[in-house]
Amino acid sequence: PFNGTGTANNPADYTITASPITIAAGSTSASMTVNIAADQIAEPNETVIVTMGTPTNGIAVVPTVHTLTIAGQTPNVNWTLASQSSGELGTPTITAQLSSPSTQDVTVPFTAAGTATVGSDYTLTASPLVIAAGTTSASITVNVLADGIAEPSETVIVTMGTPINAVAVA
Q1: Hey, CA dihedral for 9, 14, 17, 18, is it positive or negative?
Q2: Could you tell me the pLDDT band of residue 4, with boundaries at 50, 70 and 90?
Q3: How far is CA 24 from CA 31, 82, 166, in A?
Q4: Residue 146: φ, ψ to 5°
Q5: What does the pLDDT look like over 142-166, one tens digit per residue?
Q6: CB-hemisphere CA count at 13 Å for 124?
Q7: Average of per-residue pLDDT across 46-69
Q8: Residue 43, number of CB atoms within 10 A of its CB
Q9: Which alpha helices (DSSP H) does the chain contain, by range?
Q10: How close are the terminal C-alpha atoms of the chain, in Å?
Q11: Whether the predicted pLDDT of 63 surpasses 80
Q12: Cβ atoms of 116 and 139 closer than 8 Å
């Protein structure tokens, strides 16, 4: 007999051969199977810990515990648009999108540059942007301010930094 524990969830993350397994007479081994489920959810490494119980017609020897690590999946993150335009007094949003939901918050740091001046031409959501666990996007709000000055078009360039719990892709 054996039991399975760990941080992975059965059957969402894996399924396992029913306990007990039998080593046939004349054989020296038998196998159990752990089938990993493709759940399409980004999550950290998870474990399946299989612990041997007391065997019948045999003696347990070390090791009696086996740890299987299911490699975590990391989502990709990118801006949904490469560019956009707004008039004065506009409130455009810049959205960061994950390739799949994550079981962890994803932190997306960013910087703003360009020809527009923060505070007099625009304000925006403070960095970093956080995409909450279980969701797939979050947005920065840019508040374009009417400064009453006739001037040419100005730019706000938002650059994604190195995210936490995700990988930035172009």
Answers
A1: positive
A2: confident
A3: 11, 63, 47
A4: -85, 110
A5: 999 987 778 889 999 999 999 999 9
A6: 23
A7: 94
A8: 21
A9: none
A10: 50
A11: yes
A12: no
Q: Which residue has the tokens 């527009």?
A: 116
* Interatomic CA distance for residues 120 and 7, integer angstroms: 50
Spatial neighbors of 101 by CB under 8 A, at least 6 apart, are 41, 42, 75, 133, 134, 135, 136
Point out which residues pair with 66 in neighbouring strands. 50
Query: How far is it, in rounded angstroms, from Cα 2 to Cα 6?
Result: 13
Give strand ranges (E) for 27-115: 34-36, 46-52, 65-70, 76-79, 93-98, 106-108, 110-113
Rounded Cα gap, residues 136 and 41, in angstroms: 11
Q: Are 143 and 93 in contact (CB under 8 A)?
A: no
CA dist 85 and 153 (Å) reads 10
Which three-class secondary structure state does DSSP give residue 141?
strand
pTM of the model: 0.74
